Amino acid sequence: MSQQTLLLALNLDGAGSDPHQTADEALRAESAGFHAVSFTSDGLLDPVQRASYAAAQTRNIGLLPVIDALFTEPFHTATQLASLDIISGGRAGWFLAARNEEQLAAAVGRTPLQEDQLGIEAADVVAVHRRLWDSWEADAVIRDHATGRYLDARKLHYVEVAGQNFSVKGPAITPRPPQGQLPIIAPAGLFTTPGLRHCRLDGADVAAINAADPQTLLSKAEKFSATGAVAIELDVYLDAAGEPAQHRRDAQPQAQRTERTEFIGSAQELVDFIRAVANATENPADQRRHLIHLYPGDLQIDGPELVNEVLPQLKDLLAPVQDSLRESFALPVAHNRFKEAA
Hints:
It holds the Pfam family Bac_luciferase. This is Luciferase-like domain-containing protein. By secondary structure, the protein is α/β, with parallel strands linked by helices. It has a single domain (about 5-135, about 175-340), classed as Luciferase-like domain (TIM Barrel, Alpha-Beta Barrel), CATH 3.20.20.30. Helices cover about 35% and strands about 20% of the residues. It contains 11 helices and 13 strands. The strands form 3 sheets. The chain has an 8-stranded parallel barrel with strand order 1-2-3-4-9-10-11-13, surrounded by 7 helices. Helix 2 (about 45-55) links the parallel strand 2 and strand 3 (about 60-70). The chain is globular, with a radius of gyration of 20 Å.
């Protein structure tokens, strides 16, 4: 049995558009022992804004905004994510999305990408973020009152990345994030030969896998975990208050359903499935940390079931919550590439 190799993340989209409610749910998740919470847009606030508000109200839980990589400006997202890491004291990560949608592309004057180009575009975007986060050395800010210098210019480094569809020049406009490099989770489909890699310098740290059903997902987790850390994504509907989860799922409009794997059943069955994931991804020679990312079908119903009935039964599998999200994932210290080269 794999020991303490799992992280748990809870999606908080069900908290609604009130940032206070989102922060309250983040606090509950933190108190329960979740390693991270995730956010997408609620229609009013973008994911980084939601995460930033929750950061100020929490102390040790990781913050994972879900941000599209295909049609957003990478210089801006690198700055936003670095700022979130600073605000949270090193608890930020990035759940990279690849929304290859015509409406999003048209908003920035582009057209959707061909399928074989998605991984290449994601790799270019991640390379920009990694290099911008390294463009300031950790001690670049000196605040030398005697000479009137705020920065040591020798510790800022020029960045120029030319992707297939864009180019970015730096350095960044914000200091290096406390973690150095934020953990990046990206869809497994982007990890292709010419595309994204499990790579310390310019790649992603965790591959998010998906499948049509839980058993297929389990098989894919076993396969992908042989080469790196994985994230298991589940839409969760749990039996609660005498109502079968299947009833709630069937009552949900088709338009609101996602492409993520659905888990429908009891809290105990979910515990058993997560234990099966831990066994399938066990690798004693390399104790990498894998993520179970849970999207409650109804946060007000499934959230308490997860907190009260599921999480307490997984304590022997869950890694300790560390001071930084990077440490929780057991990732190595992120040394600055420019300082190492010097």
